[in-house]
DNA sequence: TGAAATAGTCAATTTATTTGACAATCAAGA
DNA sequence: TCTTGATTGTCAAATAAATTGACTATTTCA
């Protein structure tokens, strides 16, 4: 029994993560383009997908942290998303410095196309490795995410 | 037993992948910067890390496919990496159209700093979820990567 | 009230990536 | 051989994405 190591054991985890994420990216982009939502900027998918989750608004500040880009970049990203009709920006009445962003009609439509594509990939994954393995992958990924929090909780501008 | 769903079950897998990868990115960047390898371009980490694997050369064409960027972008990326002393470019004597890229001394040094940081995160992960779960995560990621191959094998320029 | 901190904008620059046109090399058939 | 077509990569110009630095408005809190 020579037990040859499978190819994916030789590849660094970050590279696996990159390519795996890319699968979703390709599927989602493709679906969005077929539905004529072809003008989403690079990080646009994340914004659209993320907003759809919490049924409602998201403070701009959250994007800044999650995307790990400068607040200026976040501002510009939201700008183009607003210009292209996906988002709406409103001031938080509680604190008039803050902005929250919300999906427009078009934004929600795009989000649902994207979610459908995502779920298709999810389904293909479950079909091959089973629910349990997917659940344990989620757990492992969550742990990785958590590790970064301890690694550095600083870097908050 | 209310069994509240853990937070990471609510997050789309691509988002988990993104953030998980970011953990590695942060750790590696940080390590590299402390060691004065602070001039690596965005995709530089991938190139450096990838090359270190196969002890030797990598055809430029491979980068193009793996990074999913245009050949021009790949060319420029390699350009700056060469300029900054990380890479060397040589023509393939078999086929003089082809280029292969190799790490320089500096490149190898940076690669090993990067690898060390990566392994530190790997270790932290193993410490919390165990070898088996990491192995099954790898398997699941490999399946995801495979899915994209079937999803579209076209798009080869 | 009046600093200091927070949230975001504006303008300019740098970095990353793409598109289009091209040059060199190789492969294969008349 | 020649010639045609495909492959591999470069050059140059344009666009997109992200950063830096300086600034405005708002809130907090001593």
TrEMBL record, chains A, B:
Record flagged with keyword Metal-binding: no
Q: Any idea which GO molecular function terms this record carries? A: DNA binding; DNA-binding transcription factor activity
Keywords attached to this entry: DNA-binding, Transcription, Transcription regulation
Q: Which GO terms describe its biological process?
A: response to stress
Q: Does the keyword Ligase apply?
A: no
SMART domains per UniProt: HTH_MARR
This protein's name: MarR family transcriptional regulator
Q: Which stretches make up the HTH marR-type domain? A: 10-146
């Amino acid at each position: 029994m020579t037990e040859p190591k499978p190819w994916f054991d030789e590849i660094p985890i970050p590279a696996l993560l990159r390519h795996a994420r890319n699968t979703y990216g390709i599927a989602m982009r493709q679906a969005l383009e077929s539905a004529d939502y072809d003008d989403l900027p690079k990080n646009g998918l994340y914004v659209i997908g993320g907003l759809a989750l919490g049924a409602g608004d998201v403070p701009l500040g959250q994007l800044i942290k999650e995307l790990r880009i400068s607040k200026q970049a976040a501002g510009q990203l939201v700008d183009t998303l607003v210009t292209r009709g996906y988002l709406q920006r409103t001031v938080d009445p509680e604190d008039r410095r803050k902005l929250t962003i919300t999906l427009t009609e078009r934004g929600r439509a795009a989000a649902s196309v994207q979610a459908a594509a995502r779920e298709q990939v999810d389904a293909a994954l479950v079909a091959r490795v089973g629910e349990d393995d997917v659940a344990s992958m989620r757990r492992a990924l969550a742990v990785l995410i958590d590790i970064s929090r301890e690694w550095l909780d600083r870097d908050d501008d």
